[in-house]
């Protein structure tokens, strides 16, 4: 089963990349550019949308629930548009994109982030920084370009043969960059992502409190300030 999941994830990633490559008008892209385009798609898969798409009111984009990180229609729409990220052509040693997490909220600034990639030698350094107003910590990751993108200098091959170890790349970027920041953003807005205790509907949490003895409630309220406050309110209503 695990092998099938990896194959499906790779297939989905390659399909999205194929759509973006069609929009590049068959331009020859550097290994670094090929890698950043993959990073861009993985960001889309993890609930991030280019801010320019929102500003331009791209039709069909839908907000995600706090427990979800992807939506097929969002992926299809975003990958049908030319990538909006900045690249320092022709050197292709610097890439950047402004994202916003796909979540319905009136506090849009708290959902914004900026992805920057710097290429130095055979490595790509990635940083994902939240909006300054949030005071959240940024995330970073380092990628070996040759580990994931095969040199195509000897001739153009199929897209599938241009990449390797895509499942490892997806796992690394999801775990080190995109999922942690998205969870921080959602938590800041009170839209607690599942799986977490605060991600359970409030009505169900109240029912859980009713079945706990005082000693158990005392232990639970030490988990976080949010739970502490909620238990205090619950006790005052008893």
Q: Which CATH-level-2 architecture of the largest domain?
A: 3-Layer(aba) Sandwich
Number of domains: 2
Distance between the termini: 48 Å
Q: Tell me about the largest β-sheet.
A: 6 strands, antiparallel
Per CATH, the class of the largest domain reads Alpha Beta
- The tally of strands reads 6
Predict the CATH topology of the largest domain: Protein Transport Mog1p, Chain A
Rg on CA atoms, Å: 21 Å
Would you identify the regions where 5 or more consecutive residues have pLDDT less than 50? 1-5
Overall residue-averaged pLDDT value: 84
Strand content: 15-25%
Q: Rough shape?
A: elongated
Going by helix content, strand content and strand pairing, the class is alpha+beta
Query: What pattern of helices and strands is seen along the backbone?
Result: HHEHHEEEEEHHHHHH
Helix content: 40-55%
SS summary, helix count? 10
Describe the structure.
This protein has 238 residues and is α+β, with helices and mostly antiparallel strands. It has two domains: 2-188, Protein Transport Mog1p, Chain A (3-Layer(aba) Sandwich); 197-237. It contains ten helices and six strands. It has helices at residues 2-23, 31-45, 51-55, 72-78, 145-148, 159-162, 166-188, 202-210, 214-220, 225-237; strands at 48-50, 86-87, 94-101, 112-120, 123-130, 139-144. Strands 1, 2, 3, 4, 5 and 6 form a six-stranded antiparallel beta sheet that branches. β4 (112-120) and β5 (123-130) form a beta hairpin. α1 (2-23) packs across α2 (31-45). The longest helix has 23 residues, at 166-188. It is elongated, with a radius of gyration of 21 Å.
